[in-house]
Description:
The structure is a single chain. This protein has helices at about 1-5, 10-20, 30-45, 55-65, 80-95, 95-105, 110-125. The chain is globular, with a radius of gyration of 15 Å. With about 130 residues, it is an all-alpha fold. Helix 3 packs antiparallel against helix 4 (about 55-65) and helix 5 (about 80-95) packs across helix 6.
Amino acid sequence: MKQVAGQLRLDLAQYRELAAFAQFAADLDKGTRDRLDRGQRMTELLKQPQYEPMPFAKQVISIFAGARGFLDDVPLDRVRDFEKSLLRFMDQEHPEVEEEITKTGRISDELEKSIRGDVEAFKKTFAG
């Protein structure tokens, strides 16, 4: 998890700071808007229904997708749908990924390449 979410705490803190600043700013440059958009999506991604804890490996896959920018073009109101569909896709098409994360507790370089390819393949089928 540290591998995938290493920057997450810092990124979310920066997002909150930017969001507070952006309330008073009329013009925001593209980089700032992009950071705000990703922060909104990551915040939405981190929400979990009460009494429905998500398994560790699924959390890693979700955060990986968000932190690596795969959600950047997904409308904010579709982030939850994207996550559910992605996790279902990974369960059905690539169960070995979750098994490997659960078994080793980390993402090797080879597994990262595999996850990237899997998420890219899923994105082509997701109607966002």
